[in-house]
């Protein structure tokens, strides 16, 4: 795949870039290693000053970088601005909280004495250069939620971004440089996916984080395992959205539409499988389908647009194949399901019912505005359907029954359970999944500690 900006609204190639050669990659690896030796000794106050400055610059650049993101991957312009604002918020959150999150920890006095020490503590120290392999769907947020904690911990970053968002990737390097970070603190590597393995094998790279597809995660994890390097993986998701009889069905259906089509449906944490108790199934389905039908689909640069094009022609073809397979297997298409005429990689909001386990859409992630509806006889069947997936990123549960909430929190196989609301990431809350959705956590104190050397310090009596 070439490194290029291709506008998904019309298929026009706007900018192309040459991949960095081995000499330039080597220069940047040397710079990252050299910069880390000094940057690791900077104070939390200095790191916070720089990161707050980056947040201020991002706020100033919000309109410009939003247009870049929309041009590169097609998200509606209002959502692009919101993404930029969210990134600035996360930067400020880590600037404020990193020092307390990484403060020295002292064991109980009795345990210190029992260890034979006069004093003992746990200290969090940075690891070194961290390679971040990032996707195109949230081209700013996915990077910042790694970069903000990594930089505040004293690490330096090397970004291998998706090849279809090179302008966003270069903007991020420039942003941190303009904020005052030393040049080697955060660098973008304009390289293809085939060059990632060699970079990850380099001894100067101490760890890696990847958000992306399951095959990409497997490849990075395999190499990192061979080289004994720490990794955090956030992979696919096929999140359940469960609605029980006590729920506010009108509100659940309204939120369900947003939960499915956010970012044109191209979100790992988007609700994709809607599992509804039989007592409220018809009422929910009617409202949900009606809401999907009236969404404004079109030019992502228009303020009124709610669903823009998919990011790539291949992505639309993959989505069509899932829908066509389900249709051939007997699924009912309640709305959408047909590619529109005209330029751009658009696909309409689509709802499938009567989905069976034999259909690909039941097992695979639908990365676009396609929802599947399931009918559950009771709570036990709802849990069974929800867990019948290779993924376990997050989940959404709608019920007013406290006993049901306890059961869902206990039994759902997911990294998050959102009750009477849709899944969303926040800097203060850990984010990540189980099963084939990956391992490790981003955000919160858990995320900043992922790439730290957790050091025991013991003083003899």
TrEMBL record:
Gene3D superfamilies: Aldehyde Dehydrogenase, Chain A, domain 1, Aldehyde Dehydrogenase, Chain A, domain 2. The keyword NADP applies. Keywords: NADP, Oxidoreductase. It holds the Pfam family Aldedh. The keyword Hydrolase does not apply. InterPro entries: Ald_DH/histidinol_DH (IPR016161), Ald_DH_C (IPR016163), Ald_DH_CS_CYS (IPR016160), Ald_DH_N (IPR016162), Aldehyde_DH_dom (IPR015590), ALDH_GabD1-like (IPR044148), GABD/Sad-like (IPR047110). It comes from the Bacteria. Residues 3-457 form the Aldehyde dehydrogenase domain. Belongs to the aldehyde dehydrogenase family. This is NADP-dependent succinic semialdehyde dehydrogenase.
């Amino acid at each position: 795949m070439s490194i290029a900006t291709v506008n998904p609204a019309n298929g026009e190639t706007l900018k192309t870039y040459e991949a960095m050669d081995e000499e330039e990659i080597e220069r940047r690896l040397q710079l990252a290693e050299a910069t880390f030796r000094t940057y690791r000794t900077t104070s939390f106050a200095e790191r916070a000053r720089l990161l707050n400055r980056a947040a201020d610059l991002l706020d100033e650049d919000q309109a410009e970088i939003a247009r870049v993101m929309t041009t590169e991957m097609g998200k509606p312009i209002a959502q692009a601005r919101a993404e930029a604002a969210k990134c600035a918020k996360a930067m400020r959150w880590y600037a404020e909280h990193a020092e307390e999150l990484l403060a020295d920890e002292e064991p109980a006095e009795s345990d210190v004495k029992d260890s034979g020490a006069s004093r003992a503590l746990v200290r969090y120290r940075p690891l070194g250069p961290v390679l971040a392999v990032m996707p195109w769907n949230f081209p700013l947020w996915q990077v910042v939620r790694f970069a903000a904690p990594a930089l505040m911990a004293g690490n330096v970053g090397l970004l291998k971004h998706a090849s279809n968002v090179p302008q966003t990737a270069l903007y991020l390097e420039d942003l941190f440089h303009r904020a005052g970070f030393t040049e080697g603190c955060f660098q973008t590597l304009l390289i293809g996916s085939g060059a990632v393995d060699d970079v990850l094998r380099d001894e100067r790279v101490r760890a890696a984080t990847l958000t992306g597809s399951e095959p990409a995660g497997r490849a990075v994890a395999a190499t990192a395992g061979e080289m004994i390097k720490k990794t955090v993986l956030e992979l696919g998701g096929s999140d359940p959205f469960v609605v029980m009889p006590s729920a506010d069905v009108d509100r659940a259906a309204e939120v369900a539409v947003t939960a499915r089509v956010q970012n044109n449906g191209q979100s790992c944490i988007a609700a994709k499988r809607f599992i509804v108790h039989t007592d409220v199934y018809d009422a929910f389905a009617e409202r949900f389908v009606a809401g999907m039908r009236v969404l404004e689909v079109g030019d992502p640069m228009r303020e009124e647009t709610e669903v823009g094009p998919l990011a790539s022609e291949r992505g639309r073809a993959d989505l069509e194949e899932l829908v066509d397979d389900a249709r051939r297997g007997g699924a009912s298409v309640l709305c959408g399901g047909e590619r529109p005429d005209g330029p751009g990689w658009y696909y309409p909001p689509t709802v499938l019912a009567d989905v069976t386990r034999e259909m690909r859409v039941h097992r695979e992630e639908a990365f676009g505005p396609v929802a599947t509806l399931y009918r559950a006889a009771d709570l036990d069947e709802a849990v069974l359907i929800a867990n019948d997936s290779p993924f376990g990123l997050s989940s959404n549960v709608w019920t007013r029954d406290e006993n049901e909430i306890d059961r869902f929190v206990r039994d759902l196989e997911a990294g998050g359970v959102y009750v009477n609301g849709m899944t969303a990431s926040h800097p203060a809350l850990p984010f990540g999944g189980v099963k084939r959705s990956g391992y490790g956590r981003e955000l919160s104190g858990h995320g900043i500690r992922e790439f730290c050397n957790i050091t025991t310090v013991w003083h003899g009596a």
